[in-house]
């Protein structure tokens, strides 16, 4: 995404200290733990009940914008195996480069701070409070969209989202019923479908809600907050707009089904987004949206009777998390 909110109204400060944190992909192996719960029956006997807890198994992939390969681009992410698992993506607003500000500094520092606060008592495992504390601790100039998802061991996924990063939850209903009825012979590869999706928040086309170093930006109070009950076998896909602007949900599902594990799925999704981004003939989610807002093809294309098409060149972050019992 390109446009910082109300750039003309911003007051620029000289930053004496810009914190730069490089966040790299961490593929977390879920902790194996079964909790034995003793519940009393009507006959007051103690019956041991094995309650399965869940956590994420995560794969990640980041492909920078083709012109930003040397700097790594302006997306940032982190993955933590704290509790059931914490996943976050931030996307720096590239328009800051016009003000001689490195747009990658703010999102990287924001997520470095967020990763430090994951176990904080005041955060209390609430993604919206995590965003508040991380934002308050960030001193770099710039702005970023951000999404944070935190999984409880009981399967509750708590999401807070500011801007146009996104998250999808994909469930295979057949496997769901198989689990309910213990029909293990029905555990077969099946496409599944999206049971939850975030919605982008924006001021206008290509200008999303964003946390900022300036007062004109949004805050944690503007975050869209959702809770989703996940079950073993669910898959979540989190990404920057570079993923969801270039890949349709149905393609995401197909890609996940074809992949042997979460690492392969994340890589395949990012590669698919990257190839669509560079394909001027691909009718992407981005070009569909642009046409629906009244944007038109360049004149030479219109003369040839062609419509506005093509993917959107951007940094691409794809994170795939599979819910496993632990
Ligand atoms: Mn982006």
UniProtKB/TrEMBL annotation:
GO terms for molecular function: metal ion binding; protein serine/threonine phosphatase activity. It is an enzyme of class 3 (hydrolase). Its cofactor is Mn(2+); Mg(2+). SMART domains: PP2C_SIG, PP2Cc. Its EC number is 3.1.3.16. It catalyses: O-phospho-L-seryl-[protein] + H2O = L-seryl-[protein] + phosphate; O-phospho-L-threonyl-[protein] + H2O = L-threonyl-[protein] + phosphate. Residues 60-323 form the PPM-type phosphatase domain. Gene3D superfamilies: PPM-type phosphatase domain. Keywords: Hydrolase, Magnesium, Manganese, Metal-binding, Protein phosphatase. InterPro entries: PPM-type-like_dom_sf, PPM-type_phosphatase-like_dom, PPTC7. Signal peptide: none annotated. Belongs to the PP2C family. PANTHER family: PROTEIN PHOSPHATASE 2C, PROTEIN PHOSPHATASE 2C 26-RELATED. This is Protein phosphatase. It comes from Flemingia macrophylla.
């Amino acid at each position: 995404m390109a446009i910082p909110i109300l750039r003309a109204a911003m007051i620029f400060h000289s930053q004496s200290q810009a914190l730069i944190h490089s966040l790299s992909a961490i593929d977390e192996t879920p902790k194996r733990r079964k909790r034995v719960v003793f519940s009393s029956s009507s006959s007051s006997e103690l019956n041991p009940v094995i309650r399965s807890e869940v956590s994420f198994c995560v794969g990640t992939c980041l492909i920078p914008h083709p012109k930003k390969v040397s700097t790594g681009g302006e997306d940032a992410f982190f993955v933590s195996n704290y509790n059931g698992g914490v996943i976050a993506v931030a996307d720096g607003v590239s328009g800051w480069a016009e003000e001689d500000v490195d747009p990658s500094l703010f999102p990287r520092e924001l997520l470095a701070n967020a990763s430090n606060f994951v176990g904080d008592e005041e955060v209390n495992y609430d993604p919206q409070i995590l965003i508040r504390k991380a934002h308050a601790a960030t001193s770099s100039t710039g702005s970023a969209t951000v999404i944070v998802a935190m999984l409880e061991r009981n399967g509750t996924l708590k999401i807070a989202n500011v801007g146009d990063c996104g998250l999808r939850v994909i469930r295979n209903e057949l496997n769901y019923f198989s689990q309910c009825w213990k029909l293990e012979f029905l555990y077969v590869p099946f496409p599944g479908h999206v049971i939850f999706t975030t919605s982008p928040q924006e001021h206008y086309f290509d200008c999303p809600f964003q946390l900022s170093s300036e007062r004109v930006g949004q805050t944690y109070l503007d975050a869209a907050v959702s809770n989703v009950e996940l079950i073993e076998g669910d898959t979540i896909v989190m990404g920057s707009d570079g993923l969801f602007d270039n890949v349709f949900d149905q393609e995401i599902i197909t890609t996940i089904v074809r992949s042997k594990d979460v690492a392969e799925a994340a890589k395949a999704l990012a590669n698919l987004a990257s190839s669509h981004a560079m394909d001027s003939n691909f009718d992407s989610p981005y070009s569909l949206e642009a046409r629906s807002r009244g944007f038109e093809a360049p004149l030479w294309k219109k003369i040839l009777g062609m419509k506005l098409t093509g993917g959107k060149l951007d940094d691409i972050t794809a994170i795939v998390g599979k819910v496993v019992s632990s």
